[in-house]
Specification:
Blueprint lengths: L1 H14 L7 H78 L6 H14 L10 H9 L8 H37 L16 H13 L1 H32 L9
Helix pairs in contact: 1-2, 2-3, 2-7, 3-6, 5-7
Length: 255
C-alpha cells in the first residue's frame, strides 16, 4: 500500500517542474514531507492491523474458554441430575423404612429393613468444577465476555453453587453427627447393619425387632430416618434450582 502511494507521489513530482530558482529545494522539501506522511500512514496502518489481530485473538480466546466452560457446566448438570435422581430414590427407600417399622418384622421384612437402613446413610453430593471459570476470572478473559446476560448467568451460577454447597454441608454434617452419636452412645449398634459383619441373619433380625419394640429406640430410629429424608430433600431441591434456573441454556450439550 505504501509503495503504491510512493509511486504516485514520485510521478507527480516528476511532472511538477519548478518555476522558481528555489524550486529544486521545494521539490526536495515536498519529497521529504511526503516521506514523513508515508511513514506516519504506515505506522497507523500497522497499529490498526495489530489492534485488529489482537482483538481477533482475544475474541478467539474468549470463545474457546466459553466453550470449555459450557462443557464443564454441562458435566456439572449431568452429575447434579444423577444426584437428584439418587436423592429421590433414597427418600422413597426411607419412606419404606418407616413403613416397615410399623409392620410385623418377619424374616423378609427384617432383611429388607437392614439393607435399606444400611443404604440410608450413603449420602452423595457434588461440587461444581470451578477450574475453567476461575482461570477465566484470574486471567481477565471473563471480563471480556461481551454478552452481559451470559456473563451474569455464569457468575450467579457459581456464586449459588458455593452457597448451596455450604448449606448441603450443614445438613450432611448434622445427619452424620446424628449417626455417630447414636452409635457411640450404644443406642444402635452398627455391627447389625454392616453387610460385612459375621453376624447371622437370625441375630440381625432379633436385634432389629428389639429396637423397634423399644419405644425409645424406635423413636430414635424414626428421627434418624426423618433427618436423612430432610437431607436428601434439601440436596434434591438445591441441585434442582441450579439445573432448572441458573444453568438453563448453558448445560446444553456443546458440539
Amino acid at each position: 500500500m505504501i509503495k503504491f502511494f510512493r509511486k504516485i507521489r514520485q510521478k507527480l513530482l516528476a511532472e511538477n517542474k519548478p518555476a522558481l530558482p528555489a524550486g529544486k529545494f521545494s521539490k526536495y522539501l515536498l519529497y521529504a514531507i511526503g516521506e514523513i506522511i508515508l511513514v506516519v500512514v504506515g505506522i497507523l496502518i500497522a497499529i490498526n492491523l495489530n489492534n485488529t489481530n489482537q482483538q481477533n485473538a482475544l475474541t478467539k480466546s474468549v470463545d474457546l474458554k466459553l466453550n470449555l466452560l459450557r462443557h464443564s457446566v454441562y458435566q456439572d448438570s449431568i452429575s447434579m441430575q444423577g444426584l437428584i435422581d439418587y436423592s429421590k430414590k433414597q427418600i422413597t427407600e426411607a419412606e419404606r423404612l418407616l413403613q416397615l417399622m410399623n409392620e410385623p418384622m418377619n424374616e423378609d421384612n427384617c432383611e429388607e429393613f437392614i439393607v435399606k437402613f444400611s443404604n440410608h446413610i450413603n449420602i452423595r453430593t457434588n461440587i461444581a468444577d470451578r477450574a475453567i471459570y476461575d482461570e477465566m476470572v484470574n486471567s481477565g478473559v471473563f471480563s471480556e465476555v461481551e454478552k452481559q446476560g451470559i456473563k451474569s448467568q455464569i457468575a450467579t451460577y457459581y456464586q449459588l453453587s458455593n452457597h448451596f454447597n455450604d448449606i448441603i454441608k450443614i445438613y450432611v454434617r448434622d445427619f452424620r453427627d446424628f449417626k455417630n452419636n447414636i452409635a457411640t452412645t450404644g443406642k444402635i449398634s452398627r455391627a447389625y447393619f454392616d453387610p460385612a459383619s459375621s453376624l447371622s441373619k437370625i441375630q440381625r433380625c432379633e436385634y432389629v425387632e428389639s429396637l423397634i419394640n423399644s419405644e425409645e429406640n424406635k423413636l430414635i430410629l424414626e428421627n434418624f430416618i426423618y433427618t436423612g429424608i430432610d437431607t436428601y430433600e434439601e440436596i434434591k431441591a438445591l441441585y434442582s434450582v441450579l439445573i432448572n434456573q441458573m444453568i438453563n441454556g448453558l448445560p446444553k450439550k456443546p458440539e
